[in-house]
Amino acid sequence: MRTDGFEERWNVEARKTSTPTGPGLSSGMTSLDDIRPRLEAALAPLLVEVDAPLAPLTTFRIGGPADFLVRVRTADELERALRTATEFEVPWFLLGHGANILVGDAGFRGIVIRCEVAGIDFLDGDRVRAGAGVEMHPDLINATVARGLGGLHHFVGIPSTVGGALWQNLHFLAPARDRTVFIEEVLESAELLTEDGERVTVDVDYFEFGYDKSVLHHRADIVLSATFRLTPQPVEELREVVRSNLEWRDDRHPDLWLYPSAGSIFQKIEGIGAGRLIDECGLKGHVHGGAGIFHRHANIIVNHGGATAAEVRALIDLARETVARETGHELTPEISFIGDFGVLE
Q1: Average pLDDT for residues 302-327, to the nearest whole number?
Q2: Residue 226 in this model has a pLDDT that exceeds 60
Q3: CA-to-CA distance for 164 and 13, rounded, in angstroms?
Q4: Residue 175, SS3?
């Protein structure tokens, strides 16, 4: 992946192996035709899609195609796909909900593994286990709220799978808006496929959670499932928090159906706010091609229709350069940049 000067960031939604040496593939595999039959045989009966569009699989609705796309629906299938990519020495990344990433206009040269690992199992008492590909909202949150179990309901409306939630230590403001609630507060344990190829169960301390970060930023471990310990609460109280949080988000964040986006573009600057700095520089609402800095939240770039990754990158550069010049503050991208940002032939 080319970062063109940006910090490289890997996450549970976007992870890859070494940079390819051929046209999208590793040494000795010089065309899609060379490797496709072997991949299909190794992954059968899983379907291997070729030249698969990635834009519809991201919340930004931007990006070129992947050489290969394979969808996995169980932990065993996920492990198998990862081992196959490693064995074939093909670059790969793991795609969940597709939030917090920008895919290059030239797509991804290698294998995209779409994590759709399902399963919501209520265990004894107040515990629930969910597969890494389960959508936090509506699926997991609605299921736990219906059973009168609180804890995950705070994160309503945030686009994320369970695996992605652990990667970023998913968070939102408490109902009183006086503190931030983190998913680490309700995580009990998780099953991982470690970077060493072992399947293990770890507790919450393993993740070394921080604000928008976890140990997954530094280790190539993959979440297979997570177990949460929740708190019994009246269903109506939980639903009231859900309603309140959705209203709060609707007032400040774009509707992804109308304004596709990747969420906050830049990391939080404590006590100042990246969005406020961009706004003070007069950039809120600025448009470049099909992309624009959102008129209600200057730390969000939206796709007004037909936006390209190059146009988004231009706005990111503009915001960074303007804020640095006029305020002296450095903005650091929060999203991950995936794939090839060159020009398609």
Answers
A1: 97
A2: yes
A3: 6
A4: coil
DSSP E strands, 46-116: 48-53, 65-72, 92-95, 101-103, 108-115
Q: How big, in percent rounded to 5, are the helix, strand and coil portions of the chain? A: 30, 25, 45
> Residue 141 is encoded by which pair of tokens?
């949150």
Q: Which two tokens stand for residue 10?
A: 């890997």
Please, is 302 exposed, middle or buried when counting C-beta atoms within 10 Å of its C-beta (0-12, 13-18, 19+)? buried
Q: How many domains does the chain have?
A: 3
- Tell me the pLDDT tens digit for each residue of 135-167: 999 999 999 999 999 999 999 999 999 999 999
CA distance 295 to 56: 24
Show the domain range for 110: 32-115
The answer to whether residue 185 sits within a structural domain is: yes
Alpha-helical segments (H) within the chain: 32-43, 75-87, 141-146, 162-168, 235-252, 274-280, 309-327
Same domain, 239 and 320: no
Q: Is the pTM of this model over 0.90?
A: no
d(CA 1, CA 299): 24
Q: 123: how many CB neighbours lie within 10 A of its CB?
A: 12
Whether 50 maps to a domain, the answer reads yes
CATH number of domain containing 280: 3.90.78.10
